[in-house]
Design brief:
Keywords: Electron transport, Flavoprotein, FMN, Phosphoprotein, Transport. The relative contact order is 0.10. A five-stranded antiparallel beta sheet has the order 1-2-3-4-5, with helices on one face. By secondary structure, the chain is of the alpha+beta class. It has three helices and five strands; from the N terminus they run H-E-H-E-E-E-E-H. The protein has one domain.
Length: 144
C-alpha cells in the first residue's frame, strides 16, 4: 500500500512538472513569436543608424537596406559565410559600399567591424560592432 501511494504521488508530481514545463515552453514560444518582428525591425533601424553614421547622408539618396546583396568574399569579410553588402547611391550612381568584416586576431578573440568604402576605394568610416578586448589593453601590451 505504501509503495502504491508513493508511486501515485510520484506520478502526480511528474504530471505537475510536465504541465508546468509545457506552459512555460508555450509562453516562451508565444513571446518569441510576438516579439521577433519587433526585434528584426529594431535591428534594421540599428543598421540604418550605423550606415548614417558611416556615410555622409548628403551623398546618397537611396535606402541602402533595400539595395543590398550577399557576397562570400573571405579575404574582405573574414568569413566563409555570405555577408551583406549595402550599396549607397546618389541619382542611381554608386557612392559607397558598407559591409561587415571580422578578425580573430584581437588580443582577446573576435572583433567585428562595419566598414564603409566609397567608389574610389577611400574608407569613409568604420564602427566596431563587437569585441572582447580589455579596455586600454593596447597600453598594457606595448613593446615600444
Amino acid at each position: 500500500m505504501k509503495n502504491k501511494l508513493a508511486f501515485l504521488k510520484t506520478k502526480q508530481n511528474a504530471l505537475l512538472l510536465t504541465s508546468f514545463a509545457t506552459v512555460c515552453t508555450l509562453a516562451v514560444s508565444l513571446t518569441h513569436m510576438w516579439t521577433a518582428p519587433l526585434i528584426e525591425q529594431q535591428k534594421q533601424i540599428a543598421v540604418l543608424n550605423s550606415l548614417n553614421e558611416l556615410l555622409d547622408p548628403a551623398k546618397f539618396d537611396n535606402n541602402p537596406l533595400l539595395n543590398c546583396t550577399k557576397l562570400s568574399v573571405p579575404k574582405i569579410t573574414g568569413s566563409d559565410l555570405p555577408q551583406t553588402f549595402y550599396r549607397a547611391t546618389l541619382n542611381g550612381q554608386p557612392y559607397a559600399t558598407v559591409f561587415q568584416t571580422r578578425t580573430e586576431q584581437g588580443y582577446n578573440g573576435l572583433i567585428e567591424l562595419l566598414v564603409a568604402i566609397d567608389n574610389n576605394g577611400v574608407v569613409q568610416g568604420t564602427r566596431t560592432l563587437t569585441h572582447q578586448e580589455t579596455p586600454w589593453s593596447w597600453r598594457q601590451n606595448r613593446t615600444c
